[in-house]
Specification:
Blueprint lengths: L1 H13 L2 H6 L4 H18 L11 H16 L6 H27 L1
Helix pairs in contact: 1-3, 3-4
Length: 105
Amino acid sequence: MEKIEMIENIVQKYSFVSKALEDELLAKPAILMHLTSIAEQFSKLRNSEIVEKFDPSDIKGAVATRNFIAHDYDGVNLSVIEMTIRERLPVVKGVIEAILEDRNG
């Protein structure tokens, strides 16, 4: 959740995902690092019942994105990153919120 919220804060600071990704000095590297961290968290949960609550395509996509970032940083397709931030992160965040609510409620 923390990494998703950090990405949201970066995007909010720039007003648009595309503007944040244009900032090669700070915002883009931070966003890509947070996306990498999200994928690594999914990997840690691989054998957990928690991971079953997520759409398998979101997990697969997170891992694939992490691999692209790690192995071809300069070749990362920023339109895919933008779509991920706009469309998939809110879904993943919703699942996390539901998990936390179940645990706390």
